[in-house]
Amino acid sequence: MSFTRRSLHIAAALAVTGLLASPAMAQDKPKVALVMKSLANEFFRTMEDGAKAHQKAHAGEYTLVTNGIKNETDTAAQIKMVEQAVAQKVSAIVIAPADSKALVPAIKAAVDKGILVVNIDNRLDTDALKEKSLNVPFVGPDNRMGAKLVGDFLAKSLKAGDKVGIVEGVSTTFNAQQRTLGFQDAMKAANITVVGVQSGQWEIEKGNTVAAGMLREHPDLTALLAGNDSMALGVVAAVKAAGKTGKVQVVGYDNITAVKPMLADGRMLATADQYAAKQAVFGIELALKALAAKTPQAQLPAEAKTEVVLVTKGSK
């Protein structure tokens, strides 16, 4: 009997000091799943670091699970990650989709189970969402505008009639399409000829292969515009291998750490910063506010614009 009473006293003391959390208290804290594209890309590793730092600073408010695919085109693996998050009974999913259309059915299934979904980085296809009568807020920058900022800066160092090539991301993704359009807007405004657009699938090696091919096919190219900095790293290597460093300008998009020395020494002319560390945080915060207010998916805002800025050698 004395042992039982002592046990009860200890349990009571722990409960008072908050060391013994009840299951109800644990369930009250929402679980957010962050599903990203390739963690081989520094941009998404930075995004994950930013999300983890935010959760650590708000540990009492929510728990976080993060996941990312091995390569940018492994859509099937990302669909499984969404399904896993549903099985784990998360409260919300914040997703940077690998494909703007292919992820929509899995997202619809998650929403049907009462899970809140927020879209970051790469926008889901509007028509595909409409077809499923689905509202998924997009939290992110205007990719077309960001790419135009980069393209406009590049155009200042070129002249009318010059030839350039565009190394595009995964062609089925909205952000790849928008960045290509932004680059094309800038080149058209400056009367510069885009000789081709080819996909480097967001990856260093594929960006390198595409750039090398373009340089062989068009020996008079004056610049290559890469849809992200991972591909830009491959482009810079291709330009060097062709013996054209300083003769063929290279621009990118994302402002990952790896391109900073290249901006400093001129191997790259410019990139765009869309604040990778904050991208997921913006999405997580929108989801947490909606969960706290019990706002249904259908009533979430259609989008929330985030900042994108030009980064050059002189940028701080």
TrEMBL record:
It is found in: Cell envelope. Residues 32-294 form the Periplasmic binding protein domain. It holds the Pfam family Peripla_BP_4. Residues 1-26 form the signal peptide. The keyword Ribosomal protein does not apply. It comes from the Bacteria. Its main location: other. Keywords: Signal. PANTHER family: D-ALLOSE-BINDING PERIPLASMIC PROTEIN-RELATED. Belongs to the bacterial solute-binding protein 2 family. This is Sugar ABC transporter substrate-binding protein. It comes from Ideonella azotifigens. The lineage of its organism: Bacteria, Pseudomonadati, Pseudomonadota, Betaproteobacteria, Burkholderiales.
